[in-house]
Amino acid sequence: MSHSPARSAGLIIRQVSPSNLETPFHALGERITANGQFYQRSHFPVPTLQAESWRLTVRGRVMSPLKLSLDDLRALPETTVTTTMECAGNGRVHLSPRMPGVQWDLGAVGTAQWTGVLLRDVLQHAGVESGSLEVVLQGADCGTLTDPGRTPGDIHYARSLPLAKATEDVLLAYAMNGQPLAPDHGFPLRAVVPGWYGMAAVKWLTTVQITDRPFQGFFQTVDYAYWQQTDDLPPQLVPLSTMLVKAQIARPAPHDAVVAGSHCEVTGAAWTGEGVVTRVEVSADGSESWADADFLDPAETGVWRRWHYSWDVPPRPGPVTLLARATDSAGRTQCAGHDPGRGGYMINFPLPVPVTVTPTSSTSEAP
Amino acid sequence: MSHSPARSAGLIIRQVSPSNLETPFHALGERITANGQFYQRSHFPVPTLQAESWRLTVRGRVMSPLKLSLDDLRALPETTVTTTMECAGNGRVHLSPRMPGVQWDLGAVGTAQWTGVLLRDVLQHAGVESGSLEVVLQGADCGTLTDPGRTPGDIHYARSLPLAKATEDVLLAYAMNGQPLAPDHGFPLRAVVPGWYGMAAVKWLTTVQITDRPFQGFFQTVDYAYWQQTDDLPPQLVPLSTMLVKAQIARPAPHDAVVAGSHCEVTGAAWTGEGVVTRVEVSADGSESWADADFLDPAETGVWRRWHYSWDVPPRPGPVTLLARATDSAGRTQCAGHDPGRGGYMINFPLPVPVTVTPTSSTSEAP
């Protein structure tokens, strides 16, 4: 509803209202995604908040409930964190059968430098009671869900974190890449949860509530949860959390033409929710064989690594499918198929990029 | 699929496959519902189990995992419990807008004498480890759920109970009203959970598993849960448990004719999940005024009380709507509207019974 045309130039509209815009991933450039190129995920209309009147309420199982202004927060130690954030439904358009939700292609992912205060510093001021379990983050964004019999009506966006994660590395950010947070990105304050899918990074944050039981809100159960298989019980609904390891090809873009017998630079980025990506491989023969790509960026926890691979394009014209897969320092890698228990989330099977090998350079070639 | 025509004569088919049949509530007679008149709720095809090869597995957080035959169970102290069981969706057809699920009228409720062993005796043999939280009951019934993106595929029916409830009064029943349990009612063993909606009374029971965390299976979250409002957080999904207090009118039946100026016996039953029903009231003027009904049955925890009220039918012909409402020993009573957070469950607003006051007895009158 309220994205500025100037700020969002070049983004791809996936949903007009609420505003859901994705980055054109094939244009991947710097390691840091510019603010105007960063994907936007909204569940409700963007709320209009005033810096002067806005307050962050900290309540629940705390010794001292707090109401903090933006100035109060700025008086706490400032921290800047660089982290890659991916929407849990990134890549959903590639699922078959079609899954409900925004039909993201590859661009619901980006990397930014977030500046703010650590949630643990705020919690320390409030004094968390012993026996507490979770921290529920609630945003000012709200609206009515309409799926009859399944949804709780008029609600605010809210998501919980285990207390251990909340006090580890979660940031409450008021700036993004050195700029004040824009309304589309959660002005005046949003959570940044390193290593977790974006649904945890609550925007337009107004309330931090400490609880002693698992939060079972809509965006923790019906939405943003998956069916976890266990050996001895039926599948159980588990809230999404850590990002899975994943490599994406930026270039060539799907359906690009590449010249037979040439060298083609295959480039992309790879990330993971725990540790760092240690290996990216590329296949040009339908995963029969894989070759190692080279990293353009050093290994930094929580931040994607851009990579490239110099592909010897085969001499024969025809269709070729490129694949990339990543492995991380925890030994996790990407599987060929999508676990149906994940529904429309955690899509990390290697996505095929079909290209056409052409005999001459008369058609456009990827850079 | 497998209900015997002889056993289910008179039941109303709400769904053919899986078999979902309800009692014609207007025919309410004895306090105990005959086996052939008891409602049947199935989520999957009725499994065919053999008494000789069937075993109950007790596992998880127990000192001694068990595999019990029917004879092993019969060797434990036998208990008979009379209890009213209501499907959590009973009355759903009266909701507007229509809610998904079986469109039950008034008859997904019944009262039976169940015979078997107390779950706490079985758990005592196994030895529950300290720090345990729940008991997951799993049935042999299974099948594939097809709602894409929302459901976990091929699953068994399973439901959990808090350990406190499991060790209080839950029965594992092998007989119903003095007869061996029929296949439609869970042969060879089902749970009976006094005071709880029927979804907890797992049929065709095969596994009892002790856990240390809340079970988040499909029938605990997507199905058979409701949105609980709290003051300070968005609504949370809570598994259905205790039956709400409720009175239903059996006779006159909807659209019956009653003679102007006559005495009409309004009869029905009332039940509650905690304590006993202490009061039933009837209104014939759209809840402007209420008059006390008389009980036909004594107050017994967990068992419905039939009631009757001698209604002075007004002298003027025309449409009249009858209502009944119950109050229980915990002071709970029935509210006029349906909380949308309950979705298609826990329907206990007083259901209107429209009747027609006729000038003569030429048309049929309720007995």
UniProtKB/TrEMBL annotation, chains A, B:
It comes from the Bacteria. Residues 242-334 form the Moybdenum cofactor oxidoreductase dimerisation domain. Its cofactor is Mo-molybdopterin. Residues 43-218 form the Oxidoreductase molybdopterin-binding domain. The keyword Magnesium does not apply. The keyword Oxidoreductase applies. Keywords: Metal-binding, Molybdenum, Oxidoreductase. Coiled coil: none annotated. InterPro entries: Ig_E-set, MoCF_OxRdtse_dimer, Mopterin_OxRdtase_euk, OxRdtase_Mopterin-bd_dom, OxRdtase_Mopterin-bd_sf. This is Sulfite oxidase.
